[in-house]
Amino acid sequence: MMIYINNRDLLDQTLNFALEEYALKQLPSDETYLMFYRMAPTVIVGRNQNTVEELNMDFISKHDVTVTRRLSGGGAVYNDPGNLSFSFIAKDDGDSFNNYKKFTEPVIRALAHMGVDAQLEGRNDLTVAGKKISGNAQFVTQGRIFSHGTLLFDVDLDVVSKALHPDKAKFESKGIKSVRSRVTNIREHLAKDRTIHQFKEELLHYIFEGQDHVPEYRLTDQDWTKIIALANRRYRNWDWVYGKSPEFNLQKARRFPGGRVDFRMNVKKGRIEKLAIFGDFFGAGDVHEFERQLIGLKYDPNILDQKLKAIDCHHYFGKIGAEELLATLF
């Protein structure tokens, strides 16, 4: 059975992410949960991205845009109250991570009821008439997973390109000239116009397949105390959001179908002394664990080839394997 978590349309994304993580780790693990959230103007960077390189900091500061980092991988996104995000929180049955079809199908069916012909395309996008309306990402831990995605309902799309510094290679590889030309709002494609609140209620109705009563988890004061503490500890924490990029004297980066990988290294006397890896790839493992396995090794193609082949690289980088990583490094 699926249970709905009602966040009361809270627009503070640091609290929404904290609620999502709290549900993933603290609520009864034998249940599946669904939550929706909107937010004030916010830029969200993926778990493995270098925040300052993704943002137009001048625009962010002048327009009071919140910046935070999510647990899941993927690329940076700009959202405002015209976006409605969804999150499914469930058991990891071994066939869930990177299985975006499983978690987006209920949303696609609900959109179809409203006259919107959405398709799952590429790695993790929902599109209408070839334009993106949703990007999705996942996080897995301790046998649990959340799969969350945006739904661009009525977002100020002109702000998207102003708030972000998009990866030019990403758009060049798709033959697209700008962020604005690649995305569209769902509201433009509805058979009948509705507000975002009506849109959310209809999504809820169709995802729960017309049940008269939608089961709901009611958050207690004790729950909220823990959620607020988590938001302060992680999603509002400068070290989590921006982090500290180490000094480096070597950078190697490439884009693959599975995402961009960016190695920043400090190589001294032929050995990797410091290493930081950034990118919009989707891996289940903590990339910092991977980094630690390369520290101290000689920066030599044969040695690193052997090491990479001994590591389950797909665990950390999703569809990017040892061969692609070695090609990036050299």
TrEMBL record:
It catalyses: L-lysyl-[lipoyl-carrier protein] + (R)-lipoate + ATP = N(6)-[(R)-lipoyl]-L-lysyl-[lipoyl-carrier protein] + AMP + diphosphate + H(+). Residues 28-207 form the BPL/LPL catalytic domain. This is lipoate--protein ligase. It comes from Sporolactobacillus terrae. It is an enzyme of class 6 (ligase). GO terms for biological process: protein lipoylation. GO terms for molecular function: ATP binding; lipoate-protein ligase activity; lipoyltransferase activity. One of its GO terms (cellular component) is cytoplasm. Keywords: ATP-binding, Ligase, Nucleotide-binding. Pathway: Protein modification; protein lipoylation via exogenous pathway; protein N(6)-(lipoyl)lysine from lipoate: step 2/2; Protein modification; protein lipoylation via exogenous pathway; protein N(6)-(lipoyl)lysine from lipoate: step 1/2. CDD domains: LplA. Its EC number is 6.3.1.20.
